User: What shape does this take?
Amino acid sequence: MTNNFSLIITPEEAKKLFLKKTEPIIVNLDKPDMLAEILVMIKGEKEEKYDFEIKVIHSAPHTKSRIYVRSILENSSSVNFAGTARINETADFSETDLSHHTLLLSENSKTNTLPAMEIISNTSKGNHAATIGRIDKEILFYIESRGIDETQAKKLIAENFLKADISKLETLKK
Amino acid sequence: MHNDSTKKINTLFTNYKYGFRTETKSSFIIPKGLSEKIVRQISKIKEEPKWMTDYRVKAYKEFVKRPLPDFGPSLKEIDFDDMHYYIRPQDKTKNKWEDVPSEIKETFDRLGIPEHEKKSLSGTGAQFESEMIYHSIKESLSKKGVIFDSIDSGLKNHPEIFKEYFGTIVPYNDNKFSALNSAVWSGGSFIYIPKNTYVELPLQAYFRINTESMGQFERTLIIADEGSFLHYIEGCTAPIYSKDSLHAAVVEIIVKKNAHVQYTTVQNWSTNVYNLVTKRAYAYENAEMIWLDCNVGSKITMKYPSIYLLGDNAKGEIKSLAMAKDHQCQDTGGKIIHAAKNTTSKIIAKSISKDHGNASYRGLLKATKSARGTFNYSKCDALILNKDARSDTIPKISIDDPTASIAHEASIFKIDDSQLFYLMSRGLPQDTAVSEIVNGFASPIVSELPMEYAIELKRLLEIETE
Amino acid sequence: MTTKSSKKSSLIIKNLHVKIEDQTNRKEKKEILKGLDLEVKEGEIHAIMGPNGSGKSTLLNALMGHPKYEISDGTIQIETDGKIKKLNDLKADERANLGLFMAFQHPIEIPGLSFLHMLRTIKNLKNTEKQSLEELLEELKTELKKLKIDEKALERGINEGFSGGEKKKLEIFQMKILKPKFILLDEIDSGLDIDSLKIVAENIKDPAWWGKKHSPAIIIVTHYARILKFIKPHKVHILSHGKIIKSGGKALAQILEKSGYTEINEE
Assistant: This one.
């Protein structure tokens, strides 16, 4: 039918791509009914500094975009992400969902995020979200109470956290 | 003050002193444009101490040096040479009723504004009644030790406090327009609330005498001493017609330990006005600062009320509503800096765009390296009513606190056809249904306003969304 | 507030064809109703039953004027005292003002706008009876009580945070306040437990609000016959593939319950 764009960046790939400043990833949804999905998973270690930008531009009607970034930051790692979802006036009935969720696992991490939305259409919808936080103590307690030690439990939670947006991807289901 | 009314009041209250009224030395009008000479003239007319004159000149130099901001709407059309930067109160002429734009006159009628208020809002008449109210409020407050004065009087009558705080929250070199304001500021409020004093009555800028209260380069300084409580309200829902097209105001607020300040603004300037405001508050240990900011008027507004949470357990809230229609641009939002332990912040922003309007949210949420236990919740929603309207949400989040808990969400909505159909199926005509949905959307913010403002703002939103 | 005539008004549907945008291929429109005829008079209760996809909800939405449903042929009319008013081109609020009311299957949420405010606005627009706020509140609270809904519902955003069953009851609450002539019930029974179903049925039949000349006409769209035990229809119609294929008395509903839709289709 129509071409969909799907990009999944694993933690290993993120280390190769985003530890130095690169060109922004730009996706143009210029044909009707196009769907673009981008998932970035980052495992920040030591003193790694992740720096990247993603831009999605909707210029045709009935287009959809999903940009999901998940980062877990250990030691003195940091992430600097700028995401922009733009829906132009020619992109009626479009939708965008942009989120960046960060899990802080150390005493020294830094997070910079700018999930921006620019919408010039009164028939389209857009959502974005950004959260930053440490492991929920309730969740940790629950898992530990099942007999799993703290280190393992945290590892489990972090892994789960990184993959949490995978089920939202339509392109993977097909 | 307008010449004839000045005479009237003088004859009735011979001993009554208006803090800021200056003596007419010789008739001389400061020409248009800005220069160091003009800045010095302004300071001289106001009979200011040397430190203030020097401050103004330093600020002027900074203003000239600085380029226009590199974000937000374009300000290139402002002709800085084609305006008066200071007009003495006695030289201000009344606006002519014929010049007042017809949309404003229409809105007055539809809001049911009484005749004499129409005149004062459009700058075409005197504001006698509010002067009386102001005077009696001032008297009851001064018994508690509360100072509620014009800023010019603040400098004259309370020089030590004034000098201690002025320019410390918003330094002259913060941005181009704080530099401009610092050079030519005139009019505004000076408020000091002593320790553990609870001011029940919301203080309103409107109470103060008119010419300076709606000035172009207003400067407000509020100092809430430990344990005090204040709610300050500025502006009004009815459109205010101003011939001056540039308004660059600065508001500085210090909220000391355990104090609580709420600053509410309802802005509805006429659509020729560039409204560029720097508003900032410092909140100390256990203090609470709330900005409630509603922007409905002006051609372009750039305003990002800020709160610096500098003391442990301090709390900050920014609640903002912006409506942009017909080529208006409301570039608003807020800034919160967490720089202490266990500080909490909340941002709720609602914007509505219509026709070719652009109502955007621009925010900064920052937690410094020394912050710990930072907690924030932000929700920014935008409603786009028709084709050609626009809304951007640009929330910058920069967190260096490894123990922070931050949650930010934003959604951009259109009017849901199903909601519209539902209301229409109950007998509401389409226009009314749209304005009901808009009011429902804005209600988390509007409901926080004091009742009279809330009622008026709702009515205004109804009119504006037709 | 009394009706002008003593003759009963009718809702007359003739050869109704309704199209809706095709979800899979947006360039085309799908025809859901393919020539439906129905006449309902004030005081009559008609049940419309049929399998999923037969067009039941489409019929009611098209009657109420939902913008997504296009009437490609046929007419919807209200006849009062010999005068005929065509509804095809009228907007939803104009139809509401002519006495139509629809209780939605999935009532939508409108945050920030309270029931109290909405009903007050509607009453003010109607202007038929000058009611003070106290009188209105009395009326609203009385009706809420009859439906066993907490008064606090008045202040909440429309349908915000209510369960499916409560939302259905709130639809009937609004109906009691607006007092329509032609009531369209879209699967009012789905999501209701037995007790709530009884309360809803009682309120629909409540004679207190039929202090008008005639009781309203009711079109109940339902998948199951359960509600028809509480609101006994005068006529039952079976809808299939966009047309009424069979009409009968309330016995027809019982036959349907026993044998299901496939058998009737095969007849």
